[in-house]
Write a structure and sequence with these properties.
With 449 residues, the chain is α/β, with parallel strands linked by helices. It is built from 19 helices and 7 strands. It folds into 2 domains: 271 residues, TIM Barrel; 94 residues, no CATH class. Helix content is 51%, strand content 11%. It has a 7-stranded mixed β-sheet with strand order 1-2-3-4-5-6-7. Helix 1 packs antiparallel against helix 2.
């Protein structure tokens, strides 16, 4: 945040309160007293987790919209694990803050055709981080709501099992899911990161020597533990890795029944008029080394876009690793282009130290910068047409008028560039009719720009 005055700082802090009304009122106060916003730069972050799953900086959906306005981030998108709780709030706030917004969901699924290959979930063959993007409401309808309920129930069962195992290992320190974890969330969707925070608090509360306790349980020198404990985020990552990741006492190897099939998340997206979206890590795993095979399979299952986190694929201290990952980044971008898959890019913000927005001016980003931005405009173009007048990517109008993925990609990218955010964009859309052809829509939008 960029507040300079005490009253403004107080309102910005209120943007992250768990009470929705408090957040709404804070945004209205900030906008009422705001100076002219900086001209938005040609940058995008379409993969920001909110505090409805876990945001490392505590940002709510409303706070992220305000952040984009204040930082001049032209296109901003949210993605939460297993829930759509943030969608309405974020897109409403984007209209008020005049930010080009989009919204999505992320979950782990199982891909049986890759059951013997690790993909983008390290050490877990067949398990796949997968997404849906371009949602326009938190309501999932009669088809989508049961899928959302199932995702939440599965997450809760996994969390309860994890806590049971870690409680046994950390005895006498223990936490209770309802008492110690859920209050850390605004709507009951807890993640491993919330559980870590609860365990660190419990050890401080229930032992006389927290650093000694952790040194013993984590198998680390006391001095190292004390140094990390002084840096809260670093210590949280250590506790998570030592207790919950592969080989740790809380870890259980997932299998085909641990997560839903990829088709289920795709069905949720399509039922909501949104876009099933594959996700790419870094090209190093066995599954990602055969990524054309995987993407072809996922296209057959319904995906129409691909998510990439650029920063972790070029901003690397080791020059050799940086060169390898950079080349793989360029290769997957070219593959996505050849397969007509627009790109959804962003920094996640669910781990401490991740950037607010990618450095689009960095030399390694320049070869792919325009492709990334086109993907951002595409997702915004779909979002604004679907939310405003029901003519998004999955609409009957789009399927009839734009008969190939490439045609739809080009149309919604052009739309995203023509429709401004906020009230001006809504006024522009008022001139669009469902009996228009795509070229007529674009001509009308251009004439009203």
């Amino acid at each position: 945040m960029i507040a300079t005055q005490p009253a403004e700082l107080q309102s910005e802090q209120a943007l992250n309160e768990f009470d929705r009304l408090t957040r709404d009122q804070a945004l209205h106060r900030l906008l009422a007293h705001a100076k002219t916003a900086p001209a938005p730069a040609e940058v995008a972050n379409l993969h920001c987790h909110t505090f409805f799953s876990f945001n490392a900086y505590g940002y709510s959906p409303t706070a992220l919209a305000w952040l984009a306005r204040q930082r001049g981030i032209k296109l901003m998108g949210i993605v939460d694990f297993d829930v759509l709780d943030a969608v309405d709030e974020f897109l409403d706030a984007c209209v008020l803050a005049e930010v080009r917004g989009s919204a999505g969901i992320e979950s782990r699924v199982f891909v049986p055709e890759f059951a013997d290959r690790e993909i983008n979930s390290p050490g877990e063959p067949g398990v796949y981080y997968h997404m849906g993007i371009g949602f326009t409401t938190s309501a999932a309808g009669a088809t989508g709501e049961p899928i959302l309920h199932e995702l939440r129930e599965q997450s809760t069962r996994r969390n309860l099992g994890l806590i049971e195992r870690v409680n046994r290992y950390l005895h006498p320190v223990a936490i209770d899911y309802a008492t110690d974890v859920l209050p850390l969330t605004p709507a009951g969707n807890a993640t491993e990161r919330h559980i870590v925070v609860a365990y660190i608090a419990a050890a401080t509360r229930e032992t006389d020597d927290a650093s000694g306790f952790w040194a013993n349980r984590l198998g680390m020198e006391r001095a190292v533990v004390e140094k990390q404990m002084a840096d809260g985020p670093a210590f949280q990552n250590t506790v998570r890795n030592k207790l919950m990741k592969r080989g740790a006492p809380g870890y259980v190897q997932p299998g085909p029944d641990t997560f839903p099939p990829v088709e289920k998340l795709n069905a949720l997206a399509v039922a909501c008029g949104a876009l099933p979206c594959a996700a790419w890590l870094d090209g190093l795993s066995a599954g990602e080394q055969g990524y054309e095979e995987l993407l072809t399979l996922l296209i057959d299952k319904g995906i129409v876009a691909l998510n990439i986190v650029p920063d972790r694929n070029w901003d690397i201290a080791d020059p050799q690793q940086a060169a390898i990952k950079r080349q793989k980044l360029y290769a997957v971008v070219e593959l996505a282009r050849a397969l007509d898959l627009p790109l959804n890019v962003g920094t996640e913000m669910n781990s401490f130290g991740q950037k607010i927005v990618d450095d689009f001016a960095a030399p390694p980003m320049l070869p792919v910068r325009d492709i990334f931005l086109d993907g951002a405009y595409f997702i915004y173009g779909h979002t604004v047409l679907q939310r405003g007048i029901g003519l998004g990517y999955q609409s009957a109008w789009s399927q009839a008028q734009l008969t190939s993925r490439r045609a739809r990609n080009d149309f919604y990218t052009a739309t995203g560039k023509l429709v401004p955010p906020g009230a001006a964009g809504l006024r522009q859309l008022a001139h669009i009719r469902p009996d228009m052809t795509p070229s007529e829509v674009l001509s009308t939008l251009e004439s009203r720009t």
